[in-house]
Please model this.
Amino acid sequence: MSVIKSGQNGNTANVNDQGQVEVASVTETSLEYASKTNNKAYSYVSTYAATAAQEVIYIKNDSTLDLLIIDEVVIGSSVANVFTLFEVNSGTAAGTVLTAENLNLSSGNSAPSSSFGNASVTGSLSGIPIAIDGVGAGDFETLDMKGSLVLGQNDEIAITAAATGTIYVTVIGHFKAA
Model:
């Protein structure tokens, strides 16, 4: 085994017989990094008794500097229900304002976003479906978006619930420099 030695501080790195440097590393998710290092990870929670075919949560990225990356969407319902996550491309959302919770509880940062929920979101929202998933009565389901849903400045998403009943929706995401 060969050794590479730093000319600056004398630290060494082992090189195996195939010419590969052997290292140990620690990894973390983008969500963990955004929460721990940048204080920019948030959850948006909407819970209420919905009537059929209502928008139950709405989120818009208001940041001029950062993308809003959606990591997970958790849906649940007191009755069997179908939820549709869609990109909003028409309508002006209104309703009960949601305050995004910073996932780094030591941070006082606020999310640069607009969000509504905890009651029907109004404004005749429509758009292109991104994901559709259903849950049984009393069940929860996690849509692992793996950070693939990206909202640029002024991009908007909403979620509808198809059935009447108490709904639970949590959207977890983080902001990252564009």
